[in-house]
């Protein structure tokens, strides 16, 4: 009986050893979840473009101007002594500046200021019309008649071009306008001496390529 009683306590340490081994095994499994990693990178550079326009009264020499210092349009006939029914013509060309992106141009209503010696309303004296003509063509009665209407005949200072005309990038393919101003045949005798200063400001903006 005494030998059997002494042998039983040895079972306790063996159980504890097995439990300790189980804890070590669990930690070892968690350590095997690590992975190899790698990465790739890409790079690009973007730069904003530039946009600007310039104009010319002769279709050859282009400069930049403003409403306060506009380019003077040369008329086909001196417009200082017009008579009823007479029409004078003047050309103006618009293009983008060197290095500019492409764009489009519109022609809003001009600013008209009376300059003569009479108070007769200018709309009762003058009318205007604008057309586009081919490159290299002089703005006169012949090319105007064959041109494409931009602004139909109407009172001086009220008409405007709502359609945008494309402008190529980098000074290419200017848009050539031909402006006609007529002293109305219906102008009254009181219109004698009535003058006007007319300033057209061509409005342009850049466009997204391919649109």
From TrEMBL:
<protein>
    <recommendedName>
        <fullName>Ribosomally synthesized peptide with SipW-like signal peptide</fullName>
    </recommendedName>
</protein>
<dbReference type="InterPro" id="IPR023833">
    <property type="entry name" value="Signal_pept_SipW-depend-type"/>
</dbReference>
């Amino acid at each position: 009986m005494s030998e059997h009683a002494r042998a039983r306590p040895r079972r306790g340490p063996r159980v504890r050893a097995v439990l300790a081994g189980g804890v070590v095994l669990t930690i070892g499994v968690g350590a095997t979840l690590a992975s190899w990693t790698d990465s790739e990178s890409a790079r690009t550079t973007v730069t904003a473009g530039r946009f600007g326009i310039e104009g010319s009264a002769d279709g050859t020499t282009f400069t930049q101007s403003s409403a306060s210092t506009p380019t003077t349009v040369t008329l086909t006939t001196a417009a200082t002594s017009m008579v009823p029914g007479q029409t004078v013509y003047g050309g103006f060309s618009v293009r983008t500046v060197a290095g500019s992106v492409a764009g489009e141009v519109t022609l809003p209503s001009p600013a008209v200021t009376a300059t003569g010696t009479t108070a007769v309303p200018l709309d009762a004296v003058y009318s205007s019309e604008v057309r586009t003509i081919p490159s290299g063509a002089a703005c006169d009665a012949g090319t105007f008649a064959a041109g494409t209407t931009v602004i139909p005949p109407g009172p001086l200072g009220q008409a405007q071009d709502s359609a945008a005309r494309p402008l190529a990038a980098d000074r290419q393919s200017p848009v050539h306008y031909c402006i006609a101003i007529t002293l109305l045949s219906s102008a009254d005798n009181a219109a004698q001496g009535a003058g006007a200063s007319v300033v057209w400001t061509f409005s342009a903006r850049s466009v997204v390529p391919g649109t």
